[in-house]
User: What shape does this take?
Amino acid sequence: MPELPEVETIKRQLNREITGKKITGVEVLAVRTLRTSKAQFLEGVVGAKIKSVERRAKLLILNLNNGSSILTHLKMTGQYVYDGEAHKHTRVIFSFGPKLKIMFNDMRRFGYLKLVKTVDLPKFLANEYGPEPLEKSFTVQKLSEILKRRPNMKIKQSLMEQKLIAGIGNIYAQEACFMARVLPTRSAKSLKPDEIQKIYDSIRKVMTEAIKYGGSSAENYLNLYGKEGGFVPHLKVYGRGKEKCRRCGSILKTIKLGGRGTVYCEKCQK
Ligand SMILES: [Zn+2]
Assistant: This one.
């Protein structure tokens, strides 16, 4: 599933390509993709201009100039594709004039588009999502308080819990634990202040680096232009079970944590 760095990459690309442009037509090929009735969606979207594109957690928010916003969750395989050709996984097509089309493709069909009032967004987002890890207001004290709210939760799962902290999923939670030299199975309450500091620094570092490389195409993530992100070669543990630890050379272990494959180094992580 695309996480913060992947969604941030698409957000920046969408901003570059469609902000200020008018949506002249929408073709809905799969009604299931909409979390708003088709009639309401078309009425609220066609003829509006894109005011800005934002990201919150793993959500893309297309703000329109008529007081509405299109909320998009890419879930497993959702993709916005610039000027592509429609194919069997294309669910919605946005036209911007006669030449430019943006496709919403989604093979697994868990992704969705929902039309909401822009004014209602801040309250909804604050209820559903914890702080953004790259915001200035996200401090190590804040992380420490957040972790205390679920003292028995394992740290990797705490990092993935969207209500506690936004935008981190299975890839970057594993990377952050490795970078911080903390076992993903440690309970939140067992972490010492210096370990929380290391986890904090690791989250910020891995997210910033991954954005720089345009995200990780570990599964089927593609950016707006249909290109893969460049961060996979920089992943230290995700997807590297049974391979050698890049730090100490031991063989990396894989376990299931909350049903998700989790890779770590027994020697480097305590
Ligand atoms: Zn190691």
Summary: The chain has two domains: 4-128, 140-264. Residues 245, 247-248, 250, 265, 267-268 surround zinc ion (CB under 6 Å). Residues 193-212 form the longest helix (20 residues).
